[in-house]
Design goal:
This protein is mainly alpha-helical. The chain is about 55% helix and about 10% strand. It folds into two domains: about 40 residues; about 60 residues, no CATH class. A three-stranded antiparallel sheet has the order 1-3-2.
Length: about 120
């Protein structure tokens, strides 16, 4: 046997092992998801970590929204093992409240705040 054949055989065996591991991981994931479906807690809807939740609100309102602003808001959350989790419904309500409470502005912007002024 040459070294090339041995290397090819090892590579093929490695691919087979990786395929078997992926199959086992998929079976485990399916089993874990089936177990999770049996949980009937009302807190199960809280799934988003604070960083993800803040990014979701920021995208919904079209501007920056920090994790600290989310923490200070009145949006409902649960803490599980020191991790704050938020629900889709709560984040949607928060984004809608922010958008609904935004004041409508009309007219041209205040020229005193514009550092670049046109000189005549």
């Amino acid at each position: 046997m040459s070294d090339v054949e041995t290397h090819e055989q090892r590579a093929e065996r490695g691919r087979e092992i990786i395929a078997q591991v992926r199959e086992l991981e998929a079976a485990d994931k399916a089993r874990f998801e089936a177990f999770a479906e049996t949980i009937k807690s009302e807190n199960k809807k809280f799934v988003h970590r604070r960083s993800t939740a803040a990014a979701m609100v920021a995208k919904a309102i079209g501007t920056d929204f920090s994790e600290d602003s989310l923490r200070k808001s009145d949006c409902d959350f649960v803490v599980i093992h020191k991790v704050a989790l938020y629900s889709d419904d709560g984040l949607r309500e928060l984004a809608e409240r922010i958008l609904d409470s935004a004041p409508l502005r009309r007219g041209k912007p205040d020229q005193r705040r514009n550092p670049i002024r046109e000189t005549v």
